[in-house]
Amino acid sequence: MRNGFSAVMRIASMSFIVAVFGAAGVMPGTKVAFADSLPVRMCSESPSAPACAAVRGDRSEGWVPQTRSEVMVQHGVVSTVQPLAAMAGARILMQGGNAIDAAVA
Q1: pLDDT per position as a tens digit, 7-64
Q2: CA within 20 to 30 Å of 50's CA: 4, 60, 73, 90, which one?
Protein backbone atom coordinates (compact mmCIF):
# COMPACT_ATOMS: atom_id res chain seq x y z
CA MET A 1 0.00 0.00 0.00
CA ARG A 2 2.79 2.40 0.85
CA ASN A 3 4.53 2.01 -2.54
CA GLY A 4 1.29 2.75 -4.38
CA PHE A 5 0.72 5.87 -2.29
CA SER A 6 4.30 7.04 -2.90
CA ALA A 7 3.91 6.61 -6.64
CA VAL A 8 0.65 8.57 -6.64
CA MET A 9 2.22 11.35 -4.57
CA ARG A 10 5.26 11.45 -6.86
CA ILE A 11 3.06 11.78 -9.95
CA ALA A 12 0.89 14.42 -8.28
CA SER A 13 3.96 16.38 -7.18
CA MET A 14 5.49 16.33 -10.65
CA SER A 15 2.19 17.37 -12.22
CA PHE A 16 1.94 20.29 -9.81
CA ILE A 17 5.51 21.41 -10.53
CA VAL A 18 4.97 21.23 -14.30
CA ALA A 19 1.71 23.18 -13.98
CA VAL A 20 3.31 25.90 -11.85
CA PHE A 21 6.30 26.37 -14.12
CA GLY A 22 4.11 26.19 -17.22
CA ALA A 23 1.79 28.87 -15.85
CA ALA A 24 4.77 31.02 -14.99
CA GLY A 25 6.08 30.81 -18.55
CA VAL A 26 9.42 29.36 -17.48
CA MET A 27 9.41 26.38 -19.81
CA PRO A 28 12.46 26.05 -22.09
CA GLY A 29 12.18 27.95 -25.34
CA THR A 30 9.80 30.61 -24.05
CA LYS A 31 10.61 34.27 -23.69
CA VAL A 32 10.83 35.53 -20.13
CA ALA A 33 10.50 39.24 -19.37
CA PHE A 34 13.23 40.51 -17.09
CA ALA A 35 13.15 43.39 -14.66
CA ASP A 36 15.60 45.25 -16.94
CA SER A 37 12.68 46.39 -19.08
CA LEU A 38 11.11 48.46 -16.29
CA PRO A 39 11.02 52.21 -16.92
CA VAL A 40 13.64 53.14 -14.34
CA ARG A 41 14.99 56.66 -13.92
CA MET A 42 18.21 57.35 -12.04
CA CYS A 43 18.45 60.19 -9.54
CA SER A 44 21.29 61.71 -11.58
CA GLU A 45 19.02 62.10 -14.63
CA SER A 46 16.90 65.14 -15.33
CA PRO A 47 14.06 65.21 -14.41
CA SER A 48 14.76 62.95 -11.46
CA ALA A 49 12.27 60.42 -10.20
CA PRO A 50 10.05 61.55 -7.28
CA ALA A 51 11.55 58.79 -5.13
CA CYS A 52 14.91 60.60 -5.25
CA ALA A 53 13.57 63.26 -2.89
CA ALA A 54 12.20 60.68 -0.43
CA VAL A 55 13.55 60.73 3.10
CA ARG A 56 14.18 57.72 5.27
CA GLY A 57 11.27 56.95 7.57
CA ASP A 58 11.43 57.00 11.34
CA ARG A 59 12.42 53.80 13.08
CA SER A 60 12.14 52.66 16.64
CA GLU A 61 15.13 53.33 18.80
CA GLY A 62 17.86 50.73 18.53
CA TRP A 63 17.22 49.69 14.93
CA VAL A 64 20.07 50.02 12.45
CA PRO A 65 19.50 52.21 9.36
CA GLN A 66 18.20 50.50 6.24
CA THR A 67 20.99 49.28 3.98
CA ARG A 68 19.06 47.47 1.25
CA SER A 69 17.78 48.87 -2.02
CA GLU A 70 14.19 50.03 -2.26
CA VAL A 71 11.86 49.67 -5.20
CA MET A 72 9.15 52.32 -5.11
CA VAL A 73 5.98 52.14 -7.18
CA GLN A 74 2.79 54.15 -7.10
CA HIS A 75 -0.15 52.42 -5.36
CA GLY A 76 1.77 49.28 -4.42
CA VAL A 77 4.26 47.74 -2.04
CA VAL A 78 6.67 44.90 -2.77
CA SER A 79 9.02 43.78 -0.03
CA THR A 80 11.89 41.36 -0.69
CA VAL A 81 15.51 40.93 0.25
CA GLN A 82 16.60 40.97 -3.40
CA PRO A 83 16.03 44.25 -5.31
CA LEU A 84 15.55 42.46 -8.65
CA ALA A 85 12.82 40.31 -7.12
CA ALA A 86 11.13 43.45 -5.82
CA MET A 87 11.30 45.00 -9.29
CA ALA A 88 9.76 41.86 -10.81
CA GLY A 89 6.94 41.97 -8.27
CA ALA A 90 6.42 45.68 -8.91
CA ARG A 91 6.22 45.03 -12.64
CA ILE A 92 3.52 42.41 -12.10
CA LEU A 93 1.52 44.89 -10.01
CA MET A 94 1.90 47.61 -12.66
CA GLN A 95 0.56 45.21 -15.30
CA GLY A 96 -2.60 44.65 -13.27
CA GLY A 97 -1.58 41.54 -11.35
CA ASN A 98 -2.48 40.92 -7.74
CA ALA A 99 -0.34 40.19 -4.68
CA ILE A 100 -0.31 36.44 -5.37
CA ASP A 101 1.01 37.05 -8.89
CA ALA A 102 3.69 39.40 -7.55
CA ALA A 103 4.74 36.89 -4.88
CA VAL A 104 5.10 34.13 -7.48
CA ALA A 105 7.17 36.42 -9.71
Answers
A1: 777 777 777 776 666 555 555 555 555 555 556 677 888 887 777 877 666 555 666 6
A2: 60
96 versus 31: the higher-pLDDT residue is: 96
Cα angle vertex 29, ends 24, 32, to 5°?
A: 45
C-alpha–C-alpha distance, residues 105 and 100, integer Å: 9
Q: Whats the size of the chain, residue-wise?
A: 105
Distance CA 38, CA 85 (A): 12
Query: Domain residues of the chain, as ranges?
Result: 1-29, 39-49+70-105
Mention every residue, 6+ apart, whose C-beta is less than 8 A from residue 43.
49, 52
- 80 CB neighbour count, 10 Å cutoff: 17
Instruction: Give every CB contact of residue 72 below 8 A, 6+ residues apart in sequence.
Output: 51, 54
